[in-house]
Amino acid sequence: MEKKPMKTNILLSLIFFGTFGIDQLTKYLVRGNNVKFKSFFLILKEYHNPGISFGTFSNIEPMIRIVFLSLFFGVILLLSMGIIFYLINKKELFKLQIAGTFLIAGVTGNGINRILFGQVTDFIILPIYPHLVFNVSDIFIVMFGPVCIFYSFYYSKKIWYIDNLRTFKII
Q1: Catalytic residue among 122, 140, 148, 151
Q2: Is 138 one of the catalytic residues?
Q3: Per-residue pLDDT tens for 94-134?
Q4: Is 163 tagged catalytic?
């Protein structure tokens, strides 16, 4: 087995912590500071989303919601980390590793806020879609989720068994 160069691991770590840090910093700057900004193409205004995507599960009992969403986030994070650690040993899957790192950083940013505060701070509104409010993590999730799916199919022969059993190769 070929060892992954240290530079790649450092780069993936920098991408993860940089993305996560930018998300947390923007939420921190907006949270409780009554930030309001309006222009032709962008509106910044603080909202709190106690549910998941687009407010799903926001109407159930708060304690049940927090426990359910924390468990859901934990399972998703563990699965994602397992996949990234599997892929980290594959030099030819670098593009998928990069996309996966951005995706996991976005999921982690929202998940941490959901666990710590019971809700996620959303603050970005596009005037052409005023009913959608999102944050920096959501941008990374929406951008890199489809990229991960695309690269999973594109690199499928390097990820899956040749006889297409749809199970991971043992490293």
Answers
A1: 122
A2: yes
A3: 888 889 889 889 988 988 888 788 788 999 999 998 888 89
A4: no
